[in-house]
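User: Reviewer 2 asked us to show a designed sequence for the structure in our supplementary figure. I'm pasting the structure tokens here. Could you produce the per-position amino acids so we can include them in the response letter?
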């Protein structure tokens, strides 16, 4: 499922934007595929094929112009740029200070709380999911 979804996204990003995706890397908890769009921003693909932009707090907030989550993810770099222009508090536990998030769910910014958080907190920060949902993910890591 994730390989198929990655292929669909790669094709759409290439066709509509002329941009490339990096080969997907599996997240340390084993549940997600992570790919970097145009060397600029990480996109995650969940176990059931759902897309997400880990660094963007809630991309729906910045993407009313996009008709679907898939369309927003095709423009993940634009969603990040939009977030960058908004002052928001990383202490609320969602989103990252930098757009590229690694397989360990860290964004490599000393100014981001993720640098000292536990895995479950980094997953919560990176995904559009509740705390209960990310605890289940961590506890059921393959
Ligand atoms: Zn971070």
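Assistant: Here is a per-position design you can include in the supplement:
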């Amino acid at each position: 499922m994730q390989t198929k979804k990655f292929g669909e996204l790669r094709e759409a990003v290439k066709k509509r934007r002329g941009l490339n995706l990096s080969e997907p890397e599996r997240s340390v908890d084993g549940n997600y595929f992570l790919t970097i769009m145009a060397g600029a921003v990480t996109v995650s693909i969940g176990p059931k094929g759902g897309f997400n932009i880990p660094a963007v707090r809630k991309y729906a907030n910045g993407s009313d112009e996009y008709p679907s989550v898939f369309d927003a993810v095709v423009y993940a770099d634009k969603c990040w740029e939009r977030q960058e222009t908004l002052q928001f508090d990383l202490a609320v536990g969602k989103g990252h200070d930098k757009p590229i998030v690694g397989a360990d769910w860290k964004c490599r910014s000393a100014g981001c709380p993720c640098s000292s958080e536990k895995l479950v907190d980094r997953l919560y920060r990176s995904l559009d999911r509740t705390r209960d949902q990310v605890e289940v993910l961590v506890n059921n890591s393959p």
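For the response letter, you might also mention the following. The chain has a mean pLDDT of 91. Residues 96-97, 106-107, 109, 112, 114 surround zinc ion (CB under 6 Å).
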